Amino acid sequence: MQPSDFLTILGLGLAIWSFIPQKERNFIMLFFSKTEIIIFFASLLYILFLMSFDWLKENWFGWLSVFTVNNGIPAAIWAFIIALIIITLPILKVSFGYFSKSRLDELLKLYKVLINANDIDLLAGYIEKYHINDIYTYLKGKSNLPEYDFRERYETQETPYRKAFKKLTKPQRIEFAYWIYETVLTNDEFIKNAANKYPELFAKAFSGMESKKASDKDVVQLYIETIFENKNQKLIKELKIADQSSDSLASRSQYNDMPILSGLFVNTVAAADNYVWYPVGEGAVKSLKYDEEQKDFLRKEHDEKLEPELWNHKVWIATVYFNYMVRETIYNDPGWHMWLFYFRHTVDYLIDIIPEENNYNPDAEYPSFAHFVIYRQFDAMIDWIELAKDQENDHRVIDTIRCLGWCINSVCQADERKLSRAFKKSQLERLVSLYCEYAYHPDNVACTTAREWLTKLFLSPKGVDFGPPEFTNEYRDIMAEVWDDFDRIPFTAHGNGDILEEFETNILLPLGIA
């Protein structure tokens, strides 16, 4: 290698380096320890020495000949080889390697600078490329750590939890993942600025939360609130996909790309501990109170062609979100009702939105979009009970019937200028049919539980299982009309009339109807 060649390579390298923005230069430097940087610059000096070797040997230091070998590789060639190595190795390390273990603190400082500068795209790109899979691995490992006792903080000896945590974070990449998660991915400003644009990034991390030990309620709720308030289109796309099938998200995610819903719902124990319902439930209620644009749409006369526009409104997004959140807990019970009771509040607010003075078609199944959403929320609750029947478990059955009772009471008490008699009867008739049909499945725990609790609902809809049985005259009159119009033929064939007799004895007589 001639000096001119070296200067050309060195000049080219410096030119390329100068074109890289300062933030990226700082980032690249974190791949190399201080020792490696010193070696790099020492190698440059060594290359200069090799290029000068022959001249120094002939004119100043003849003893350098001891380093030569007959027919050996000339010093200039060695200089060229070393130059290629010190150019190639850094490129390979930055492209395929990982950060120097000694540069963790500087990496965290750089990421904090990017957060403060709102350079979210660059930071999200770094996390996606270098950290997110490791963060997932870290949270998955944390999910399976031994139980932590708060008294351990006062222990001086190694506890099982501390030992397991040290073992988990011993690999360099997992140690980095731990610190990146704790200081960057859980940073409020980063979540607020990045979640709506990169929702899958966070969802990938959350999918590693497989138990309460790894759950992070505040972080997950802020994430959900951010994407829900922004009506995130990727979330809506996944909800639309989910709405096309009744299968569990866990099984469907193998064939459909639904990282957000899978990350939030599939690990149901962590989902319950993260309160994944709260931001959406509160957001939906708030929108029904104050979002005038949504109210105007819900008051519109129902038109099937306009149904896709429902996805522009939070109450509909929340309805579908709650549906699949609760469904997942029926497939995999976390032991919690996921506050499905938000439906009783949304039904009340939807009834309030419907104007008393209106020109709706009273014979229409859904006179307005508010009616349509109420009907779909009843659909969802009844489907939860049906799903439990199909799965032969009683997950969410009792809580669903409690919620249905409140909703039935609200519907029956509504002014008939808002909800027609036919609309009220149709909701109650669906529950009567369910009660009678489930008599044919005495060995199915969902059916027996549903019949037991539907009995309580029919006798006291607003307070299904608390206080003395209580019902209003309006409700009793509607129940009487439902029973008069009820199709008895399916339940009288083949000597099954005792189902109807049981209903009259256990429900209608106490109501003062039969």
Structure overview:
- By secondary structure, the protein is an all-alpha fold.
- The chain is built from 27 helices and no strands.
- The termini are far apart.
List the helices and strands and how they pair.
Elements: H1 3-19, H2 22-29, H3 34-59, H4 75-96, H5 104-116, H6 120-130, H7 132-143, H8 160-168, H9 172-185, H10 188-194, H11 199-206, H12 217-229, H13 233-242, H14 249-252, H15 259-265, H16 268-273, H17 278-290, H18 292-299, H19 314-331, H20 342-353, H21 369-391, H22 397-413, H23 421-437, H24 445-459, H25 473-485, H26 489-492, H27 498-511
Structure in a nutshell:
The protein is mainly alpha-helical and 514 residues long. 66% of the residues lie in helices and 0% in strands. The chain is elongated.
User: Count of helices?
Assistant: 27
Mean pLDDT: 87
Largest sheet: none
Could you tell me how far the N terminus lies from the C terminus, measured between alpha carbons in angstroms? 107 Å
Overview features:
514 residues, mainly alpha, 27 helices, 66% helix, elongated
